[in-house]
Structure to design on (155 residues):
């Protein structure tokens, strides 16, 4: 994070946000790393800078950034003349980039619908079908919501 007097307050805010994300099911160390990147001036840090900012080992950072890369929240950027890479947030905000590229709701809709097809008529089948319908709703609505958000950001 930055070396200014606001750093402790930013670190506290990042930690609090990461705790909320972890409580919602996001892995804790990747959440902490993500919020450290969000709170950094450049939106990019080396593994060593992340380890220092978070007060954790290089191994903890390695696992966290690997996870964040897998889900599309960060990408690795080579530094010319250095063997150290920086981990950076996408050009678009990470949440927009992730939702635009994430087919998880479509897959969950298909899986829920397949489950509903296998169940006999009754409450369980109705719940599975409603789950499929909800995920299909999200699949249809997220692109429009993201377009609205982009318009508001530019607004």
């Amino acid at each position: 994070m930055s070396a200014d007097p606001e750093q402790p307050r930013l670190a506290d805010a990042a930690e609090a946000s990461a705790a909320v994300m972890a409580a919602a099911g996001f892995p804790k160390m990747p959440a902490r790393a993500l919020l450290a990147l969000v709170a950094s001036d450049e939106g990019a840090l080396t593994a060593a800078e992340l380890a220092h900012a978070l007060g954790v080992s290089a191994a903890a950072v390695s696992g966290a950034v690997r996870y964040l890369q897998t889900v599309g929240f960060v990408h690795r950027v080579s530094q010319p003349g250095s063997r150290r890479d920086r981990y950076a947030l996408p050009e678009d905000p990470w949440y927009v980039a992730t939702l635009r590229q994430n087919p998880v709701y479509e897959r969950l809709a298909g899986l829920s619908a397949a489950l509903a097809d296998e169940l006999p008529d009754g409450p369980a089948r109705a719940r599975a079908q409603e789950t499929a319908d909800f995920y299909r709703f999200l699949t249809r609505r997220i692109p429009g919501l993201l377009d609205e958000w982009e318009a508001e950001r530019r607004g």
Observations:
- Residues 72 and 98 are 6 Å apart (CA to CA).
- The mean pLDDT is 87.
- Residues 123-154 form the longest helix (32 residues).
- Residues 103-154 form one domain.
